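Might I ask for a little of your time on a matter of protein folding? Here, with my thanks, is the record as I have it:
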Amino acid sequence: MNVDIHDTWQPYLQPEFEKTYFKDLAEYIKSEYKNHQCFPKGSEIFNAFNHCHFQDLKVVIIGQDPYHGYGQANGLCFSVNDGIPHPPSLINIFKEIEDDLGIPYPKSGNLLPWADQGILLLNATLTVRAHQAGSHQKKGWEQFTDTIIQLISDKKDNIIFLLWGGFAKKKKKLIDGSKHVILETGHPSPLSANRGYWFGNNHFSKTNYLLQQAGESVIDWKLK
């Protein structure tokens, strides 16, 4: 596995790359990509960091696993490549943005423009075997991404963490709530949303209000 992470993250993450667990993880992922079809493609595994640079970071959204269907995953949680049908959770995210901010439902499900504005779209596990959800869990990725959440909490101030669903909410223990803002709601999956745990959370307008109050530029949530 080629660890290609933007220079702004290197000073913080280089010590992690030297640890035994990460070297073992890298060998495992290298073997998986050689012997099986895996997603996202190798050059996009660290897309979340390469589009959201450390000094620009304002918001963190935590997902669980990359999409495991062909051509879907692009290294950002909840995001799919252009031209790919929107998965159910992403559909509900866009519906909530439409209700919250009046922004029309987009054609593209590619969230790269969000990442470029300082949103870290972080999956807990950064790779997956095709059509096998959770296949790369408990191999070391969670230790790596938990370290990143803790690092952001320690090294940054006034970051807005959006924790959607039970899995993301478990990461709350890694975040210093006295110096960051934590917004929690249900997962945007149909199961959660249809039970009333997602719609009406207004996380997108709340995020922009909080950024404005902190003197930061707001997020343009509109996609093409």
The two ends are 32 Å apart (CA to CA). The mean pLDDT is 95. The beta strands are 38-39, 59-63, 119-123, 128-129, 160-164, 181-185. The chain is about 35% helix and 10% strand.
